[in-house]
Specification:
The protein is of the alpha+beta class. About 40% of the residues lie in helices and about 15% in strands. It has a 3-stranded antiparallel sheet, covered by helices on one side.
Length: about 90
């Protein structure tokens, strides 16, 4: 799988001047509303902010699953998700 083409983060939920959540890159103090994605719901903002960490976790667990004979049913969906995230699909 290729190197991710997305901003790897870490991403965090930030607030605009009205208190609405949006996604920003933690290490970038210049990230402003709408830089990555503007959202209106806290649950969506938390999910989007956690996406880079979930990607890293899937990449880390894939080799373990590939070496596990009884884990084979979980490999295909993980590969498909990683391909989608990495722009291969």
């Amino acid at each position: 799988m290729n190197k991710p083409t997305f901003t790897q983060g870490p991403w965090i939920v930030k607030r605009d001047k009205h208190g609405y959540p949006y996604i920003g890159v933690k290490s970038d103090p210049w990230t402003y509303q709408g830089t990555v994605a503007t959202v209106n719901q806290r649950k969506d903002a938390r999910l989007i902010a956690a996406a880079p960490e979930m990607h890293a976790a899937l990449k880390a667990v894939l080799p373990i699953l590939e070496s596990c004979a009884i884990c084979s049913s979980g490999i295909k969906p993980i590969r498909e998700i990683l391909a989608k995230v990495e722009g291969e699909k």
